Amino acid sequence: TASADQGNTQRGVIYTIAPSPLQASLVWVGTDDGLIQLTLDDGKSWKDVTPREMTAWSRVTMVEASHVDANTAYASVDRHQLEDFDPYIYRTRDQGKTWQRITTGLPAGVYVHTVKEDLHRAGLLFAGTERGAYVSFDAGDHWQALQLNLPVTSVRDFQVYGNDLIVATHGRGFWVVDDISVLRQVDDAVLKADAYLFQPADAIEVAQGDDNGTPLQKDEPQAENPPNGAFIDYYLKTAPAGVTIEILDSSGTSLESFTSIPEKAPPGAQPQGIPNTTALWRVPPAPLSTEAGMHRVAWDPNGGRRRRGPRGGAQPTPPKLPGTFTAKLTVNGQSQTRSFMIRPDPRIASE
Fold it and tell me: What is the arithmetic mean of pLDDT over 104-119?
């Protein structure tokens, strides 16, 4: 594709390529000199579908072909080298005949590097800007921060892998938002509820290692792994008096419970299932939060540190895995339940 200035020998380059996951012959490309082009016949012919308002030498940093509609695509544009630092994201729903700029909620003066669509929920988008990550639940009509504990840094790309969102930054490493199934469920019904228990994603029965070595010291640099087991997410509109979450097996037997009431242990008590180590290496189970907002608890079906049993008594019998389980949330006397699966570790051949 030629640059806007035909007399200039410095030509623009294709900066992003987006094959449609729904129509093999449909491919979008974006260039660093301000063009978006589309082919419907595997590249035999191309059509210039650049948004009319986009000027020359705007860098098309990402084109994302929709996973739910072949006519829909999204494009992020960076103009900071033209001394325009504002965010630009465009959406088309008619194969580029018309485009809409969709940046409501993105901060002014913060340009965009990438836009990606979730693989499962229609309208769930992620935007990476020079100063952080953003999410939209309505196909880009409105955006809000998805910063969490992410450093204020340049977010260059996303990858949706299973239930996880992988975030690539410039200079601050790779980050992972573990299990975004909650984002896929957020809707008006959730926001109107006083309390809401989300459908947990199926979890994996991770094979436990047999190396019971010495834990790393707290000052040892290390990246944190996600906890084993199932994530149980709940939402509270306002702070209630108390919250409990109970895990039941397929027969209705209670396997474990979590509560907002802090657990009081006798001084020096050693939790069940933990090697006899210094208290500096042990993290006591935290009570459930009753603050308004979103919360998460991890249930490890293999026991270990998170399994609670009678102090001084026998360790509870681990549940039979894999299997179907139920999470039960109780807030202000009202209960909600959601069933989920613990599936076998795919790395281990079934017998």
Answer: 97
Are β-strands 112-117 and 334-344 bridged in parallel, bridged antiparallel, or unpaired?
unpaired
Q: What is the pLDDT of residues 309-348, one digit of tens each?
A: 333 444 556 677 889 999 999 999 999 999 999 998 888 7
Q: How far apart are CA 178 and CA 166, in angstroms?
A: 8
The model's pTM? 0.83
Overall average pLDDT of the 196-207 stretch: 90
| 3-state class (DSSP) for residue 186 | coil
Strand order in the sheet with 293-299: 195-197, 230-236, 293-299
SS3 138: coil
By residue count, the chain amounts to 351
pLDDT in tens, 133-161: 999 999 999 999 999 999 999 999 999 99
The phi and psi torsions of 208 (rounded to 5 degrees) equal -80, 135
Are the C-beta atoms of residues 183 and 124 closer than 8 Å to each other?
yes
For residue 124, give the DSSP letter: -
The angle subtended at Cα 216 by Cα 213 and Cα 222, nearest 5°, is 125
- List helix spans (H) across the chain: 181-185, 188-192
Give 128-136's long-range contacts (Cβ < 8 A, gap of 24+).
128/154, 128/155, 128/156, 128/157, 128/158, 128/167, 128/168, 129/87, 129/154, 129/155, 130/80, 130/85, 130/154, 130/155, 131/107, 133/158, 133/167, 134/105, 134/106, 135/183, 136/102, 136/105
Measured CA to CA in angstroms, residue 227 lies from 59, 177, 308 at distances of 40, 13, 16
One-letter amino acid identity for 225?
N
pLDDT of residue 341: 94
The residues facing 232 across adjacent strands are 297
pLDDT, one tens digit per residue, over 274-294 is 555 565 655 566 789 999 999
